[in-house]
Structure formats: C-alpha cells, structure tokens
Amino acid sequence: MLQRQSIFSLVMIAMFAALTAIGAFIKVPLPVVPFTLQIVFVFLAGCLLGSRNGFQSQLVYIGIGLVGLPVFTQGGGITYVLQPTFGYLIGFALAALVIGWMIEKVELPTKKHFIGANIIGLIIIYAVAVPYLYVSLNFWLHVETSWSHIFLVGFLNSIIADFCLAIASALLAERLYKVFRSAKSLKLVQVKKENA
Description:
Number of helices: 6
Number of strands: 2
Strand content: under 5%
Distance between the termini: 12 Å
Radius of gyration: 18 Å
Structural class: mainly alpha
C-alpha cells in the first residue's frame, strides 16, 4: 500500500517539477525580472499535492537547475543562486509548502480556500523575491539600484498578472482537487482489495 502511494507521489512530484520547468519558458521578457507562467504550477502543486509533495516538487525543480540543466529562465548551474531572480525560486518552494499546508487543514476545501491559500502563497513569493532582488543587485552584482526601482521591476510589473493567475489557478485547482483526491482513494481501494 505504501509503495503504491509512494510511486503515485513520486510521479506527481516529478510531473509538477517538469511543468514548473516548462512554465519558465512561457514568458514575457521584461527588464530584470521576466514574467513567466511558472507561478501557475507552483499554485497547483501546493493545492493538489499538499505541503510536503508540493514543496518537494519545487525543490526537485530547483535542484535539477542548480546541477546544470537549463530549466531556469536564464539557464542553470550552481551560480544561478547569484541571479537576481533566484529569490523567486526560493519563494516558489515556500509558497507551495504553505499553500499545501493551508489546504490540508480543511476537510473539504472550497473556492474561497483555494483563492485564499494562493493569495497567501503569492505574498510569500514576493516577500522573499523582492528583498533578494535588491540584495543581489546591490551587493554581489554591484549594480546600484534603489528600493523604488526594485519595487517597480520586481513587484509592480507583474503583481496584477500574478494575482489574476492566482485566482485562475485556484478555480482550476478546485476542479482538479476532486480528481486528485479520487485518484488517491482509488489507489487505496485497489491496494486493500489486493491485500484482502
């Protein structure tokens, strides 16, 4: 039983890591911080996989990028931690963790739960990413940049679109959640029959 559940979890973790990587290449180039669709898969990972598996899916994505596979918006490799946008990736992992935790606390989550969790996740992403952007540019890349410029390029340029994506992802997650839940239940029923 545990083996079947583990296989299902591993497949889902790998799938959402791959989807996040694909989302990195669906982008609108903007100065300093490009706008991508990665955030959609972060929201969905948290909502559908739960805190642990959602978090792990993002850690797998970050890990494969840091070992050198070009899955980030500007390549890959260990030196990517110096990129100004690496804070968004840290925020993605933390957001998936918190979103999943919030959804797990509700027996039967509804639209408002998914929307609320995604908005909290969005706040976490920006709370990590914007300061990281400032520190990265000013301290190790030696590009003197004011907080107002960072606020513009790291927050204002994309917050409205990301907020809309948070709502859209929540509505999609509400529909998909039932499918994911029934898939998990079906696996458990099959395993119980086999062990009977």
